[in-house]
Amino acid sequence: DAGVIQSPRHEVTEMGQEVTLRCKPISGHDYLFWYRQTMMRGLELLIYFNNNVPIDDSGMPEDRFSAKMPNASFSTLKIQPSEPRDSAVYFCASSFDYGYTFGSGTRLTVV
Amino acid sequence: GENVEQHPSTLSVQEGDSAVIKCTYSDSASNYFPWYKQELGKRPQLIIDIRSNVGEKKDQRIAVTLNKTAKHFSLHITETQPEDSAVYFCAASGTNAGKSTFGDGTTLTVKP
Hints:
The complex is a heterodimer.
Chain A: E1 5-7, E2 10-13, E3 19-24, E4 31-38, E5 42-50, E6 53-56, E7 65-71, E8 74-79, E9 88-95, E10 101-102, E11 106-110
Parallel strand pairs in A: 2-11
Antiparallel strand pairs in A: 1-3, 3-8, 4-5, 4-9, 5-6, 7-8, 9-10, 9-11
Chain B: E1 4-7, E2 10-14, E3 19-25, E4 32-38, E5 45-51, E6 56-59, E7 62-67, E8 72-77, E9 86-92, E10 101-102, E11 106-111
Parallel strand pairs in B: 2-11
Antiparallel strand pairs in B: 1-3, 3-8, 4-5, 4-9, 6-7, 7-8, 9-10, 9-11
């Protein structure tokens, strides 16, 4: 198994642009999580899905953030418009029982 | 909701010494307690976990203990090595199946 696959690995964009992060979970995993990690705020849960259905999006910072999971093998996190304070590493993770498998993350820099 | 507190935030030990990281949780219904290790620039990786029906679990140099009455659990690393240097996160889950609440992390430095 290739594990949880995220793309892109690095993204540099200008303020105001739309950014889309992608995630392919491990086949058979029924939970998918999006986390944001910064030095100041640590690991923050943004949103999670169970069987492709969003369960809790209370961690999404504001309306500029949206996430979708159209099928069991794909999810996106979109930021529109992006701002410098969105700069962080964004991790996707999936699980079947309880333990998480994290992807390699997307390092987002908004200039 | 669940609240997980982790201590210490930083820990420095000499190679060969033991390291202990402690976490407390608030929700008595939590029943699964994983630990993740995150090396610099890498993803968090699950290294060991324990369920509420077990008091202790060992895997080579690492062990976890759980005290359900006191609602705390700990990670023990013996004979530390420089490659143990990383950020360690504890987590707890149970009432929201699948969702873990993470501690703030402990930065462990093992000095050669």
